[in-house]
Amino acid sequence: MKKLLALTVVVALFVSIPLVGVMGASKTKLSVWTFWKQSWIQPALDKFMAAHPDVEIEYQQLSWSNGFDKIVTAIAAGKAPDVMELGSTWMAQFIENKTIVPIDISAIKDDYSGWEGATGPDKNVYGFPWFGATNVLYINADLAKQAGIDKCPATWSELKAASEAIDALGPGVRGYSIKIGGRYTTWQKFMPFAWSNGARVLNDDWTESLVASDRFVEALEYYDSLKKSSLVGTQEEIRQAFYLGRVGIIFDGPGLNLKENAPELDYFVCLLPKPDRPGTKSVGFAGADYIVVTSQSKQKALATELAEDISQGNLISNHIRTLLPFYKPDLKALMAKYPNDPELKVYVEQMKNATSPAPHPRWVDLQEVLTEAIESTILGRGTAKDNLAKAKKEMDSIIAEYLKEQGK
Amino acid sequence: MMKSAGLRQRLSILFFLSPWLVSFAIFTLYPITYSFYLSFTKYNPISGQAPRFIGLQNYLAIFSDDRFWLALKNTLFFVVGTIPVTTTIAVVLAVFLNEKIKFRSFFRAAYFMPAVTSIVVIATIFIYIYSPFGVLNSLLSLFGIQGRNWLLDFHFALPAIMAMDIWESFGYYTILFLAGLQSIPEELYEAANIDGATGIQQFFRITIPLLRPTFIFVLVINTIRSFQVFSEIFVMTQGGPIGATTTLVYYLYNMGFQKFRMGYASALAYVLFAIILIFSLLQMKVLRYGERIYD
User: What pTM, to 2 d.p., does this model score?
Assistant: First the structure.
């Protein structure tokens, strides 16, 4: 019994030592969670700590595989960080649930682009736009040359012709590549075709789905018509095929990383072709990351200041230059640093007209329905028109349910 | 004096059991109980608001949810398609590995290998095997068969994952059957030999009946495991294409951790629990039928 008592005392001592440590600390602590190496973020942290010597910053790098789950569980447990990075796909839900707080942008409104994705239904802005990724067309230069293509395809019919010409080179080579599978890939690769064609997923006041519109159907029919000369596969499969020269044209972003994955490959970069109809323009997909302040933060003013510091200084773009900064002076600096990078120029150009879906709080459900309509069409289960009509019906009921919940 | 000795003994038992008891209470018992409560609530973990009690609404909603029925259908297909194959291969292999063959230890270890390999690693490798330019299509092309993109094919995606699952799991069950085989007394076979029973007769009249406890164990464990299939789906297809590989646990994960409908996800978990319980009880009842004959 005595031994048991002794053991209890020892355990109690060990538990209490860290507590004493915490109680003894006097510095204000701010926690920051992003998906990047601390050394990349450090310049902003140093700048902030120099201005606030009484503040200590605890930085944590989240992993791509489970970082998001970590954020969610931390919030549920009431242990959210003060400042964190959030992708555009998650903004709507976090805004709806008031997990993140609005920021006052009156003084800096013109210094950034990309506010739309952080703007809630209440017109408040909920985070600093940090960097954005868009997709552009990468074309294997050797295959293009063999197929007699010497310039970027500018229109849908030129893209189709290029895809068919490359596909005709032999059985081991496909022309374009249609990526499907996963939660985001299918719709993110297709939607730029629909947007370029003037179509949208939702109407202005988010009361109705527009996916059954003629423009939308036309875009999906065109996309499906590329299939004959395309490789259909998952993002990874298609990237592998492109690295190996088995597919001529890929619609991809910074993640393709040809310098590392296929350093020998000769390629050129183009804007996404636009519909043949005059008056249309090439509209890309803008995936953006934001730096937000959580509503659980006890130091919101300080945290907002720190978030702003992180959103500036090209912390990410200095390492991956095709992840473009939203802070305008940073973009200028980046362009000045690499004046002769044709790839960067195309990214910047594509980003100018890039957009993302309306941040509807039920986007997670809507994207699932949209994905199914696109995949069904590409995999030959029904026509574009029928699949989109069905999708519209499902989307409308999701929207109606949401409006009902909101009491509208 | 006696009393205090008894108390001391009980306390020391408790003390030695406490590492497990504490972790069981914190990491298993509490979450299970809490999620049962959540299944009657509406709860969004990122909202910062407490769960709101809504009675049976989640359970009622499940039964009119088309995606739930699709997930249940896919899961049943997975269970019914994998378990008989896995079990048959495991029994046959166990009998084979129980014979005095050359390199017996090597084969035993080799068949068990997939069972000790991480499922995520296996799934990642199979993604490459099943890809359009993968090993499987290259092999098929040797026989003039046109390959396909297995994991993006509405009809073949789930069977492809099932094939991988069978390959991954039969080694483990083989070892269990092997242990079962070695507990069958040699005298029974000697007696059967004297009576003139053939090898086939011995297999069906002695081996299979006496493996009954192992069968029960393997089937119940494998059923529970198969109903809970998740990692393969998560790594390989994320439930696609067009929901063709969405299983119950993947659907539940999607509801809870992508859409933050924790109450609904918890209700799904309890429906799954009920299904597994019914299946397990049925299996035990059916397989135990007539057990006494061989006691």
Answer: 0.86
